Amino acid sequence: MKIDQYDTAAVMAVAARPELVFVEGHGSWLFDHRGKRYLDFVQGWAVNALGHCPPEIARALARQAQRLVNPSPAFFNDAAIELAGRLAALSGLPHVFLASSGAEANEGAIKLARKWGQKNKQGAHEIITFGDAFHGRTLATMSASGKAGWERLFEPKVPGFPKAVLNDLASVEALVGPATVGIMLEPTQGEAGVVPAEDAFLRALRRLCDRHGLLLILDEVQTGIGRTGTMFAFEQVGIRPDLLTLGKGIGGGVPLSALLATDAAMCFEPGDQGGTYCGNPLMAAVGSAVIDAVSTPAFLATVRERAAQLERGLAALIARHGLTGQRGRGLLRALDLGTPDANRVVEVARSLVPDGLLLNAPRPNLLRFMPALNVKADEIERMLAMLDGILMDST
Ligand code: PLP
Question: Taking a C-beta distance cutoff of 8 angstroms, is the pair 207, 176 a contact?
């Protein structure tokens, strides 16, 4: 495809992309190659915790790039030691493996759980996961996912991921057997359309795991690092997982993820897990810069304020346009239009002039909002006003 001066032919066509090329971003705004700007409520799919090109990340990258980029994962490096220590202290899970993507962190969690089952539960290896779950795009994490349309893709899948129904405890209990080693879920299913696991359900899963000696694996790739208003979503429920995975926000836009484990769950031995980029200081330095910014009580309080503002604004739109409702936690919210118009709204929003608006439609009836965690109050108002205008024109 030719987009003005760009020939995109060499870019493998794995996504249906609109005909524009992004060349710059600052805070909540992205700029395309024609100079048009867009208010960004997608932020790299809930990735840019501090918005586009935040000075904290630019500084951390520049400083670290001049000191040490990658001594190999076979050696300790100071940046990875610092980030691992900080994640352990914040989460209460003392063993941290740094990786590059959410899928890689989840793949590590699956491997660790399987090894734990071999050592402690006569080879138990099944991990109960959930319909509509999303855990990544490696073969094992695709198999763990319950994404509609993936059932027949890239067969045969990795076995060992029986699917239960979110918020239905009986459906989980029915799957627990001698081969079960753990239960894995997102505290709020993001790609499914922002579907929160109920607090009581999460607590019941914790108890079920304790009763049967299973590992509770929380995939906080999307919900972690302040996205739901606390550092980790599990804090709001009063439980702690045995394994925790982080991604997206932890890198503020760069490839960084983490697998965390309790003492009791940690059973990797040297050689079991690794990767060329795992724990590289360049990305680890960014992770610490993100944590510096996000983990303060004042920052998280502001996330909660902005989330409440977004919720109030969406409630007003729902009332004004007769929409179906909203759901979500913190700055991960979805608006149910009640009609299959979400993709059209996304396109109209992007095409607005002079400024466009970037939204995401995880389902035909749903718009998802995942702005930068430091989005400003007036940017939320601006987004709501733009959306109001679109909804007005469509009714
Ligand atoms: N887990 C969850 C909950 C996610 O939302 C995602 C990505 O959307 C992933 C895992 C996969 O992360 P990545 O795309 O970095 O591999």
Answer: no
**Tokens coding 113:** 């759980």
What are 338-355's pLDDT values in tens digits?
999 999 999 999 999 999
Instruction: Quickly tell me which residue has 């991990």 as its tokens.
Output: 127
Residues acting as catalytic residues? 134, 219, 248
Contact predicate 213/250, CB 8 Å: no
* Whether the Cβ atoms of residue 197 and residue 82 lie closer than 8 Å to each other: no
Report how far residue 144's alpha carbon sits from residue 134's, in angstroms, rounded to the nearest whole number.
Answer: 8
Give start and end residues of each alpha helix (H) in 149-214. Answer: 169-173, 199-212
In whole angstroms, give the CA distance from residue 118 to residue 182: 12
Q: Are 365 and 337 in contact (CB under 8 A)?
A: yes
- Indicate yes or no: pTM above 0.90: yes
- pLDDT bin (cut points 50, 70, 90) of residue 393 is confident
CA atoms within a 13 Å half-sphere pointing along the CA-CB vector of 36: 15
Adjacency order of strands within the sheet including 243-246: 95-99, 257-261, 243-246, 215-219, 180-185, 126-130, 163-164
Q: How far apart are CA 91 and CA 268, in angstroms?
A: 19
Amino acid present at 386 = M
Distance 329 CA to ligand 1 centre (A): 17
Residues 6+ apart with CB under 8 A from 324: 318, 336, 337, 338, 365
- Ordered by where they begin, the domains of the chain are 2-54+297-394 (3.90.1150.10), 55-294 (3.40.640.10)
Where does ligand 1 bind, in terms of residues with CB under 6 Å? 45, 101-103, 106, 134-136, 186, 190-191, 219, 221-222, 247
Instruction: Output the six-digit token pair for 375.
Output: 């989005």
